[in-house]
Amino acid sequence: MATRQLPGTGETFLDHLGHFVPDMEAAHRALTRLGFVQTPYTVHQTTAGPGQPPVPGGTANRCVMLREGYIEVLCVVDPQHPTGARTQRQLERYTGVHIVAMTDPDALARRDRLDAAGFETQDPVNLRRAVPLEGGGEGQAAFTVCRTPADSMAEGRVQILTHLTEDLVWQPRWMTHENGITALRDVVILPADLDEAADRYARFTEAAPQRLGDDVIRLKLARGGVVLTTPAGAARLFPGAAVPPVPGVMGYGLLSDGLPATRAFLEGRGFPVRDAGPGLACLALPASLGSAWLIAEDERAFPWSPNAA
How far apart are CA 179 and CA 162, in angstroms? Predict the structure, then answer.
């Protein structure tokens, strides 16, 4: 069944999460063992505006495209480039998720609203990356990205973007995976101050925070959401997984089209899947990727769901 990748007017989706890794080949091998088809290795490019020639952007990536959202894996290719240098500084803190990207139909209008809400956003980035076409040749995936300065969202590179080339990014040949994983859901973030972060992320996401316990707060988006918690809360949500330094990103939720089959596949590949509650499994990812997953067949099984037991 086809699903809608991009939000409509007034909606915000959790679009993708980005792992920063020191060794792209090791990360690629880990993702392959995990059962994912991946997009080709591609160096990022930026342009100054329409009609301007692209220039290298300092980083490169591979992506795991899902029926809803995607997972990005990035490495540094030029540590002297401002984006490459910022990525390297974040990577030196820990290997794992550092990008939290939400999508809005109009990133430039959203940027104006962020400025009005007290965020001093950076100039929009016209991001480009080459994408091979299934029938041969190459296209240019295009995005308008509005990033925040490092000191305003210390937990990671939290950004708003607009997709300009949906069909190039979500090509059907990349969207079916052996492990049965189909969709990205909530990201779990570790701020230094839970209450301060709840106010800040409410202004950034334009969503109301909902407290789900002493140390868990969720901001529900039109698709997916942002979960804020403490290190103790993260250790409870993701049993057996290492908790990264604070501030940072702990991990995220994924949906499977059949949890028993997904779990059997991962265990058959030698990955130590743990029970995390009824209808819920946890996997601490290999060191080459960092971070951790919670996997469910029904999103009501996630512990931050209002319907969770």
Answer: 29
